[in-house]
Amino acid sequence: LFSSVQLAPKDPIFGLTEAYVADQKPDKVNLGVGVYFTDEGKIPLLKAVLKAEEELVAKHLPRGYIPIDGPNPYNQAVQNLLFGAHSPLIKDGRVVTAECIGGTGALRVGADFIERLNLKAPAAISNPTWENHRGIFEAAGFEVRDYTYFDSATHGVDFAGMVKSLESYPKHTTVVLHACCHNPTGADITEAQWRQVIEICKSKELIPFLDMAYQGFADGIDQDGIAVRLFADSGMSFFVSSSFSKSFSLYGERVGALSIITQSKEESNRVLSQLKRVIRTNYSNPPTHGGAIVAAVLNTPELRQMWEEELATMRNRIKKMRHDFVIKLAEAGVKEDLSFIEDQRGMFSYSGLTAEQVERLQKEDGIYALSTGRICVAALNTKNIDKVARAIARVLAA
Ligand code: LMR
Question: How much is the ipTM here?
Answer without folding.
Answer: 0.95
